Amino acid sequence: MNDAEALAAFLSDRHVACPNCRYDLHGLGSARCPECNLSLALRVNLVEPRLGLWLAAAVGVSTGIGFHGILLGLVGYSLIVNGLGLGIRDASLLGGGFVMNGVALLVLLRARGPFRRCARPARLALAVGSWAFSLTTAVLFFAFVD
Ligand SMILES: [Zn+2]
Fold it and tell me: Residue 137's CB: how many other CB atoms inside 10 A?
């Protein structure tokens, strides 16, 4: 049985909506939706994708991106109007924190699969570590800001 036959067999006794247009695919004879003409495939998914701690880690470094990004915008505004007493050094510190948290987020986005395969204690440590990393970059900014 090939993939198209497996899809047809699956839909022969089920009423499943097309994920794109919601057309009822019951009795479908090909691997294309007759309504929107997009290709369809039968897939295996995890019932529980174990992404809670990955999301917690991603939110942790995203918080750092938001913190540094908002303050970087404030420093940029200050540099333009020269009224808030912030300058290039502050912008460099914030830019560094923004980039470090951004790189951490990119690594997390790329490593979602390996993250999910880790044991729960390792995933918990990575989530806590992401928040600690984000908090550390913010604390370092306040320690070195003029
Ligand atoms: Zn469709």
Answer: 23
Which run of H or of E encompasses 58? helix 52-81
Higher-scoring residue by pLDDT: 55, 49: 55
Considering only CA atoms, give the Rg of the chain: 24
Q: Distance, CA 39 to ligand 1 centroid (Å)?
A: 9
d(CA 115, CA 117): 5
Per-residue confidence (pLDDT) for residue 31, from 0 to 100: 92
Closest by CA position to 116, among listed 44, 42, 55, 43: 55
> From the CA of 11, how far away is ligand 1's center (Å)?
14
Q: Is the pLDDT of residue 101 over 90?
A: yes
Handedness of CA 73, 77, 78, 84 (dihedral sign): negative
- From the CA of 42, how far away is ligand 1's center (Å)? 14
Residues bordering ligand 1, an ion, CB closer than 5 Å: 18, 20-21, 23, 33, 35-36
Beta-carbon-side half-sphere exposure of residue 128 (alpha carbons within 13 Å)? 6
Is the pTM value of this prediction over 0.85? no
